[in-house]
Specification:
Length: 210
């Protein structure tokens, strides 16, 4: 079998020419074996009609195997010549022939250096794309964070609006005055809480004394 990879032919045919020849060889060989078995069975049947024959079935099998070996040796020689002819004249694409899908290489030829430069440029573009994609993800995360902060600010503004409405209801329209009003009331509430705590402590002590 030929050791030439014949990659261009494989691209065109969809299989390597050597694989094709190997399958043809196996098919012919199988057919040869089957044919010899048929010949052997015919001879054995013919011998059944001659009970006094001095040839045994074992001798016939030995003769069949010997003849098969002879046929296979000659078949291999013939097939080797046929394979050489087919690989050179039938399954071979000449060096000056381009497949239709490779015509673009003829129109836009590239040297190895140009091809390597193109590969380097592609790698750089891929790196830039990855960096921009990563930056885009970071930007999206920042936008989501800003949305969360904006929602919290809107809640605070709503709270201040409600606070201003409460202050207006109590007769104070200025925010500073309203804040001072709330601070004063909160201090009063703190004072009331302290009084309640003191009274509760006194009650606890009096209960303990009793």
């Amino acid at each position: 079998m030929s050791v030439n990879p014949m990659a261009y032919e494989a691209q065109f045919f969809g299989f390597t020419p050597q694989t094709c020849m190997l399958r043809v060889y196996i098919a012919f060989q199988d057919y040869l074996f089957e044919m010899m078995l048929v010949v052997e069975s015919v001879i054995l049947k013919k011998l059944d009609g001659f009970p006094n024959a001095k040839i045994s079935a074992f001798q016939i099998r030995k003769s069949t195997e010997k003849f098969l070996l002879f046929m296979k040796e000659h078949f291999d020689q013939l097939f080797s010549k046929m394979e050489e002819v087919l690989l050179q004249l039938v399954l071979n694409i000449p060096k000056n022939v381009l497949l239709p899908e490779d015509k673009v290489h003829e129109q836009y030829p590239y040297t190895k250096e140009q091809f390597q430069a193109l590969q380097d440029e592609i790698n750089q573009l891929q790196q830039r794309y990855k960096a921009e994609a990563s930056a885009g993800q970071a930007l999206l995360a920042e936008i989501e964070e800003r949305k969360t902060v904006q929602a919290e600010l809107e809640k605070i503004l709503q709270w201040f609006d409600g606070l201003e409405n409460i202050c207006r209801a109590h007769g104070t329209s200025n925010f500073k005055e309203s804040f001072a009003f709330l601070t004063q009331n909160s201090k009063k509430l703190q004072g009331v809480l302290k009084d309640v705590e003191k009274k509760s402590k006194k009650l606890q002590r009096s209960n303990q004394l009793e």
